[in-house]
Amino acid sequence: MKRKEKCRRRPVIANRFQRKILNLVFFSTVVPMSIGVICLYYLIFSVVAGEMGIPESIGYTLIPAAQKAAGIAILGFLFSVFILWVWALKVSHRLAGPLERLCQELDDRICGKKKGYIYFRKGDYLAILAGRINGLLGK
């Protein structure tokens, strides 16, 4: 019977390192996009309506159009945040998971529980580091 490897099938938020990466991505997308939506809303209502001296009848027509434009901007904002969050979750999963596994494998070798080389899954970002550690273990 084959021994089942410890490997996660779904990307989950596994440790503090991954949470920090995801928080960084979240705030670096939410803050600029929120400022952009607020600036767009301000531009449509204050600058266009105030500077051009639009009469009230045209202003009443402009307000629903501006609200629709702001709504579309907010939907685009939410969609792009979702796409970036999913991408960041996958990337951080490929980085934080191997880092945690590498620490566990090194601890096992230090304690004498395991011997031999450290192996990672195909596509994990720290495979280069594991190769160098394996070279050190080989010596």
Total strands: the figure is: 0
Radius of gyration: 25 Å
The global form is rod-shaped
Please give the domain count. 1
Largest sheet geometry: none
Q: Which secondary-structure class do the elements indicate?
A: mainly alpha
Low-confidence runs: none
Strand content: under 5%
Distance between the termini: 32 Å
Write the H/E string, N to C. Answer: HHH
Helical stretch tally: 3
Q: What's the rounded overall pLDDT mean?
A: 78
Helix content: over 70%
Describe this structure in words.
This protein is an all-alpha fold and 139 residues long. The chain has one domain. 76% of the residues lie in helices and 0% in strands. It has three helices and no strands. It has helices at 16-52, 56-111, 127-138. The longest helix is centred in the middle third of the chain and has 56 residues, at 56-111.
